[in-house]
Amino acid sequence: MHSKVILVVIDGLAWQVAHDGMGYLQGLREAGLASLYRLECALPSLSRPLYECILTGVPPVESGIVHNDVVRLTSQESIFSLARTGGRKTAAAAYHWVSELYNRAPYDAVRDRFTDDATLPIQHGVFYHCDDYPDDHLLVDAESLRRRHDPDFLLIHPMNVDDAGHRYGLDSSQYRNAGRRFDKLLSAYLPHWLAEGYQVLVTSDHGMNNDRTHGGLLPEERQVPLFLLGNRFSHCHEAPVRQTELCGIVADLLGLSHNKQRNPELLA
């Protein structure tokens, strides 16, 4: 079966902040319309390595993307390349490191910020390069891509939660409120996506600590949420989930042939 998929990766969102502060998503869970899982991210708990982990299923120590300053194209098979090979259409509204991993490196804003090229793994993209790029703008970018190109797979990657964490730390109202704001913004889009048959995954790459950073083993750095929404999911709350399985889950939803780690317990 082939379903369209939207993957939302909220950069830097720690599990506890998502669990306690994202009232709209939690309301959907209480209504039986979503499920919530706690994941432990791979190590190191850094952004670029974990984009690669989520989008290829390969942990950083195997992919070689082990810190944020590794600027090169992936050497792994990603969900974008799998989808393109399988005849699916791809799109992303995301931080420019995603473009550097899967399309072209290094990123050239004039060339790459707005991408429309059927030969690239990410065929349609709007990429940004400032950490304070507003989340509401990013969601408009994503929805515009969705309406114009009708992608089978759409990545949405906002940065304001992570930016607030680096500025103010885990235990700050600014960080918690950035999570709450994105939850509110998402409420304007999710009903439409679900009504059009999309399967939606909302997760994070890593969390945050009180030193205003991340990268290590602290629970607040490693524990991240995964909300699943859509009629293809089993909503089996007891199923264990690993971050390295997300690529395989998306590939299964897209109906793609692959050899990625998978978790059939999550799918109905």
Query: What's the tally of helices?
Result: 13
Overall CATH architecture:
3-Layer(aba) Sandwich
CATH top level is Alpha Beta
Proportion of residues in extended strands: 15-25%
Q: Output the helix-strand order.
A: EHHEHHHEHHEEHEHHHEHEH
Structural shape: globular
> How much is the radius of gyration in Å?
17 Å
Describe the structure.
This protein has 268 residues and is of the alpha/beta class. It has one domain (5-266): 3-Layer(aba) Sandwich (Alkaline Phosphatase, subunit A). The protein is 39% helix and 15% strand. It has 13 helices and 8 strands. A hairpin with a 7-residue loop joins strand 4 (114-116) and strand 5 (124-128). It starts with a strand and ends in a 14-residue tail after the last helix.
Search tags:
alpha/beta; 8-stranded mixed β-sheet; 268 residues; 15% strand; Alkaline Phosphatase, subunit A
Summarize the helices and strands and which ones pair or pack.
Layout: E1 5-9, H1 15-21, H2 23-30, E2 35-40, H3 47-56, H4 60-63, H5 79-85, E3 90-95, H6 96-102, H7 109-112, E4 114-116, E5 124-128, H8 135-149, E6 153-156, H9 160-168, H10 173-186, H11 190-195, E7 199-203, H12 219-222, E8 223-229, H13 246-254
Helix pairs in contact: 9-10
